[in-house]
Q: What sequence folds into this?
């Protein structure tokens, strides 16, 4: 896969996570408090929300890095600068 394809895939996943986070409400998974029920019926809503936020942070970092690579592949070494190195 090319860097541009990888970038598009990461941006698609980011959009999905943002949609999921935006849809969380007090009555939906991730928006509820953690709950314990019968044996083996524990639901970690807070952990789910935190895992989405952590993934979003990782995606943002990967997207930023890939954007530099795609720019370089597309436009070349503009003004002698690549990823902030002169």
A:
């Amino acid at each position: 896969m090319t860097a541009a394809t990888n970038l598009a895939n990461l941006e698609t996943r980011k959009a999905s996570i943002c949609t999921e986070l935006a849809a969380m409400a007090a009555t939906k998974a991730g928006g509820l408090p953690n709950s314990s029920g019968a044996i083996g019926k524990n639901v970690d809503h807070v952990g789910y929300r935190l895992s989405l936020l952590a993934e979003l942070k990782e995606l943002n970092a990967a997207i930023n890095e890939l954007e530099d690579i795609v720019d370089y592949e597309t436009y070349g070494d503009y003004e002698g600068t690549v990823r902030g190195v002169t």
About this structure: The chain has one domain: 3-80. The mean pLDDT is 83. Residues 45-75 form the longest helix (31 residues).
